[in-house]
């Protein structure tokens, strides 16, 4: 699909160069002399850089009279062709709608190495030997990884 649009370019700098006007200050002097329009050179610099968002008819008339130009010399229309990329087609039943999941790399862990659910785990009861209970006192907490069921059997 190709679309066409009109692009308007601001040609004030080009027009100034064709008329041998080299600066914003020189254009400001010419505007005051020829058209009686007074404008600051700083403001005029903004108009020289890009197409102004707002432009008074008085300034437009003064620019055209001073530079001895027509409005089509200052604002140039260009037709631009837009090449639009067509939207992708909807996937059919023989086409996958999503890309395939990449395969995992690395080794698979054996089932024994995987953690078991809580209901399958065997509870560990802490019953340390009597000699340790006397040394540590009644307020000391015991470490669960040191005391297992093995100590009860001794």
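-> sequence recovered:
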């Amino acid at each position: 699909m190709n679309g066409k649009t009109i692009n308007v370019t601001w040609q004030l700098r080009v027009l100034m160069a064709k008329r041998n006007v080299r600066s914003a200050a020189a254009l400001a002097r010419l505007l005051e002399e020829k058209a009686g329009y007074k404008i600051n050179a700083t403001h005029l610099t903004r108009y020289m850089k890009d197409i102004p968002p707002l432009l008074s008819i008085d300034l437009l008339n003064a620019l055209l009279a001073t530079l001895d130009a027509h409005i089509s010399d200052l604002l140039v229309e260009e037709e631009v062709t837009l090449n639009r990329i067509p939207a992708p087609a909807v996937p059919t039943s023989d086409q996958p709608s999503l890309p395939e999941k990449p395969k995992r790399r690395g080794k698979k862990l054996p089932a024994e190495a995987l953690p078991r659910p809580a209901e399958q785990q065997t509870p560990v009861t802490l019953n340390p030997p009597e000699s340790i209970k006397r040394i540590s006192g009644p307020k000391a907490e015991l470490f669960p990884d040191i005391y297992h069921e093995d100590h009860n059997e001794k």
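The chain has a mean pLDDT of 76.
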